[in-house]
């Protein structure tokens, strides 16, 4: 039965429209790839209700102390690592809040470790090592929806009563049947048969970006369209932080800079300090006590 599922998966990868791919000119190659890429957004668009439902359910778990665990192999795992790594600097959250588990570990980020994707035990061991519980969210990512490593992670998460979400890119799959929530656009066969780093990878990147950005916004990590919890770790981001505080408070960049210097360049804290006339110690207390309140809610609490 496993062979039948795999054979069907491989059959679906064949793209009869690009059998002359290797004979095209450079311009024809990139034009064809570009045309194929244009179809991805529409495929993802059809899944927006499912993505929105996932945002709501994931937010509920995180508000109660849960964490997100992305799980994937190959390209799917690398994209998971990319999205999870961007959450702390963009939204000022702990690296523990959104974690990525890639088959093969850190080594698989820089070189292919393809054989590990068949190991069900490795996925479960990694989830156990991170003490996944019923508070958490396990998000399995796989183009085909049948990768053993990722399937096992979803099954284990389901057993623990964690919220499970599957992200696949060739429509409904084995993973869709296992997970509590399924996001399953069908991007069609790749122009380069079986190379899921292309359209499937683009779709996964889009969906992960939607999920993490929307969840963090619902958790209060965004004010209007501003990253009020951005980690200003370089000069460019410090200037951005100054612009955020200046815009929200209606003050000069110079005044914003002075405030930010008092709170280690944390925009939210600088805004709270200015608007509520509070000390550094008090705004530290507010942000620690109410981590998942929006800036507007925090201002209303003490105004």
Structure write-up:
- Its EC number is 4.2.1.126.
- Helices cover 56% and strands 8% of the residues.
- It is an alpha/beta fold and 303 residues long.
- It has two domains: 2-218, Rossmann fold, CATH 3.40.50; 235-302, Helicase, Ruva Protein, domain 3 (Orthogonal Bundle), CATH 1.10.8.1080.
- Strands 2-1-3-4-5 form a five-stranded parallel beta sheet, with helices on both faces.
- Helix 8 (148-160) links the parallel strand 3 and strand 4 (163-167).
- The radius of gyration is 22 Å and the shape is globular.
- The model has no long low-confidence stretch (mean pLDDT 93).
Which features characterize this protein?
8% strand; Rossmann fold; 303 residues; 2 domains; alpha/beta; Helicase, Ruva Protein, domain 3
